[in-house]
Amino acid sequence: MYFGLTNVGNVRKRNEDYIVQHDFSDNIHLYIVLDGVGGNNSGDVASRVTGQKVLEYLENNIDLNNINQDIIKEAVQYANKEIYDLSNSNRDYRGMGTTISLLLLDKNTAYFLSVGDSRIYSIKEGMFQITEDDTYINALLKDNIINKEEAKNHPQKHMLVNAIGINKNLQCSVFIKEVRPMDKFLLCTDGLTNMLDDKEIFTIINNSKKEKICESLILMANKRGGADNISVMYVECE
Q1: Which of 19, 67, 111, 145 is disulfide-compatible with 104, CB 3.0–4.6 A?
Q2: Are strands 109-115 and 119-123 parallel, antiparallel or unpaired?
Q3: pLDDT tens for residues 147-202?
C-alpha cells in the first residue's frame, strides 16, 4: 500500500521536489523522494532527471530474481553522472543537484539508500529515522561539537555535505533490512521535517486515515509556514 504527494509550499514559486513510485512486479516496488538544490540553477531539473534516470537504469538492468545492493548503488551513480555532466555542459544548469531517499521493497527485504537530507522513517510504536542526514550539522552532532539544542538554530543548519550531481564520483551506501507485513515507512523531504518534529509527524500519522496521511502532513507543514517544497510518501508492506 502506498500514498504519495508533493506540494510547492507557501513560499517557493516552483516545486523542485520530485517523487517516483514504480512496481517492477507484484512483490517488488520502488519509492523515491528527491529535493532539488541550486535554486535558480534548475534544482527541479536535477530532481526530475535523477528520478527518471534511476528508474531507467533499474528497468534496464535489474534482475528481479536476484536483487542486490550493488544494482541500486549503480542506478544512483548512473543518475549522478547524468546530473554532473548536465551541470558542467550547460550554463543554465551550473551548480544544480538533488537529494535522494530511495526504498526498494523485494518481498521480505527492504533496501534503503539516501544522499542528502531527505529522510526515510520506520513507523512502529514511534518514529525511527533509518537514513542519516548528509549535513554539516549532523557531522558536528556526531563529533559532539554541538548539541541538539544548538543545532536547531545553527546558521549552517541546511548545509549539505553530499548531494547528487555535485561531484563526479558519488559515495553512497545501501542499508538492508528484513520487513514483515504491516511494516510502515515514511519518505519525506526536509520541507516536512523543518516544519514538524518527529513527535508531531507520528501523531498526525496515528490520527489520520491511511489515504489522508500525506495530505494531513502537508497541510500542517503549510500551516506552520510552508517555507519549502514538501514531499511525502507513506508505504505499508503487505
Answers
A1: 111
A2: unpaired
A3: 666 556 766 667 788 899 999 999 899 999 999 999 999 999 999 999 999 999 99
Residue 104 has which C-alpha cell?
A: 526498494
Task: Look at domain 2-129+161-236 and name its CATH class.
Answer: alpha beta
pTM for the whole thing?
0.94
Amino acid identity at 41: N
- Residue boundaries of the structural domains of the chain: 2-129+161-236
CA dihedral sign of residues 171, 165, 102, 190? positive
DSSP secondary structure letters along 95-162: T-EEEEEEEEEETTEEEEEEESS-EEEEESSSEEE-S---BHHHHHHHTTSS-HHHHHT-TTTT-BS-
How far apart (Å, rounded) are the C-alpha atoms in residues 86 and 94? 8
Model confidence pLDDT, tens digit, residues 189-206: 999 999 999 999 999 999
